[in-house]
UniProtKB/TrEMBL annotation, chains A, B:
Its cofactor is pyridoxal 5'-phosphate. SUPFAM superfamilies: PLP-dependent transferases. Gene3D superfamilies: Aspartate Aminotransferase, domain 1 (3.90.1150.10), Type I PLP-dependent aspartate aminotransferase-like (Major domain) (3.40.640.10). Keywords: Aminotransferase, Pyridoxal phosphate, Transferase. One of its GO terms (biological process) is glycine biosynthetic process, by transamination of glyoxylate. Substrate binds at residue 350. This is alanine--glyoxylate transaminase. It comes from Coniella lustricola. It is an enzyme of class 2 (transferase). It comes from the Eukaryota. InterPro entries: Aminotrans_V_dom, PyrdxlP-dep_Trfase, PyrdxlP-dep_Trfase_major, PyrdxlP-dep_Trfase_small, SP_NH2Trfase/AEP_transaminase.
Amino acid sequence: MSSQPEHPTLLIPGPIEFDDAVLQSMSHYSESHVGPGFVSTFGDTLAMLRKLFQTTDPASQPFVLSGSGTLGWDLVAANLIEQGESVLVLTTGYFGDSFADCFKVYGADVTQLKAPVGSRPQLPEIEKALKEKKYKAITVTHVDTSTGVLSEIEQLSALVQKVSPETLLIVDGVCSVAGENIEFDNWKIDGVVSASQKAIGVPAGLSISMFSGRAMKVLEERKTPVAAYFASMNNWRPIMKNYEAKKPSYFATPSPQLIHALETSLKQILAAPVSERFAKHAEVSDRIKKAVADLGLKQVASKPEDQAHTMTAIYLPESVKATDILPALAKKNVVFAGGIHKEIAPKYIRFGHMGVSVLDPKRGDVDRAIKALQDGLAECGYQKA
Amino acid sequence: MSSQPEHPTLLIPGPIEFDDAVLQSMSHYSESHVGPGFVSTFGDTLAMLRKLFQTTDPASQPFVLSGSGTLGWDLVAANLIEQGESVLVLTTGYFGDSFADCFKVYGADVTQLKAPVGSRPQLPEIEKALKEKKYKAITVTHVDTSTGVLSEIEQLSALVQKVSPETLLIVDGVCSVAGENIEFDNWKIDGVVSASQKAIGVPAGLSISMFSGRAMKVLEERKTPVAAYFASMNNWRPIMKNYEAKKPSYFATPSPQLIHALETSLKQILAAPVSERFAKHAEVSDRIKKAVADLGLKQVASKPEDQAHTMTAIYLPESVKATDILPALAKKNVVFAGGIHKEIAPKYIRFGHMGVSVLDPKRGDVDRAIKALQDGLAECGYQKA
């Protein structure tokens, strides 16, 4: 039995439904941010993040800061790129465009490889781009929350290693970390930026990231000062190292309650091999995608290999408006999200499937959502052709 | 009866002890950040902040962002100051120095007026400085958490209005908002930056600020782009306006749980006139300061008019080390903080007295802390001379 009151089931691509124990950790009594109890909690949490990201290289550096996921872009753009340096941004939706905007604010020379809506830049064109120009970094949105398009990190990394191994590989993992497999060391990733409120399963308010030893070296060897203060890795790196070594230190006050919730969630995540977690997300995602196809509906991500396992972006039938189906679903206590990709926004809806809604079949969240979608579409007058 | 488990009473200058209902709000079930329920909660919260800051000018703009209090400095430095513009930073401790560092990161031409430890820059020297050079902004730490020194905002404002009325008056209110009187409109303040975990009484994780219509005009009339992305007011201002108008919109995901906790705390704060809240903080502070004097101890803030009402920084007797008295207090379940001002760090301790510990006499927090301090010092071999 859940300790949460009855409420509509939140199945948007984040925030997701949270586990009871995680929510209870949010109410933890107040502690000093530099007291031994909390320092130990934060240190353990940082160590667990290494396991989630599958990195054993001691040079890898986790960062957990108070902020939205968006703050992770500032971490990358203000710390790893200097004024005028070139960045190649692979764009599969809204979030690639916004990451590019963030780089421009900090003076980067940005080249975007934009795929048509619903697909992703292909390896041959990426190879061509990497050969034409020297890039300090290449970025990729692992799952673009606006389209549900999944990018292949392993193959991309192999290409970067082959063509331009000195280029930093940066992954926007906001809608993928803890839902899609990420092998930080094996895939030679230099940075993954993420947030708490998606597959990591913790209320919003934490920017969570992992950077490689090579990225830290780039930071150390900057010719110009870091271009931010709160988002400066130089300010936070010693603090993160101290917390992990269980030593108190201070730059800005972290949120003990959010860190407790993150500790609780990471303990749950790491209680089983992470591969099982990713397999379960894939299995449930396949079931959802089959139900969508059975309804005669198409996904925004057109090819099966481009489809995320943490969410599904579904084109509506021409006869059904998002402003009709979303309220119809809400009446059935299921909350989906509307579209946010500006080229197609009114034409599709988004179904997030991460964390407890996927992993705990007793909740019945996914089956209830599929049924609600079937019934809701019928109520809106839709019949499969 | 509290619903919180037994735990040491946290009497550091933030985070503070939190009210049960506020902590329970942290466990709120998950909601969409753009759904009608949460949009209404956030909108009401922003409207209540106007009352806390005593501003009725509709041009005033509140911002509530996920982040530490430190993020407020980036908001000021990256949005209101352009490369090479001059800022006068009044420094009464560690936090004035750090605010100056933040300005430098964003390219400001910084002049610091530093007072000797335990005092504050005096009006005549501030007047001289303002007459010598044209400053875009002057900043003041209302209560410097490292020293417990209180600055007089009203008198400072009158001086700025007289000598250099076009200079923006920016207040670092991290350790003062909701504990010390701040009359945003009457005192012609252009910006107050604060955080959730001090007198506002909400777990850490929110940067909370208020800016004047004049500050917003400075933002609009910038000649160069804003120098940050996550900390860009241009990205957040329309979002804050939309939430307050109860319209959904998105730049980066806010934390529904922290916003619920803030709503709960602001409702409690505004249930009585804020003047009563400030008077109660002053009354309890006076009692603590008398107990400190009765023990034969001196405060870091030497003159009574320079002493904050939200915290007390206490010089230890020469015979007592911080590393002895702090653990002795901890054994009595009272948590004070050590010193952080680099010139005097080992010589003093800090006692925070804000929020429920001050306002709810049934808790007995303050009396227990005073008794623990008396007994702890005696155990450390101290006797009043």
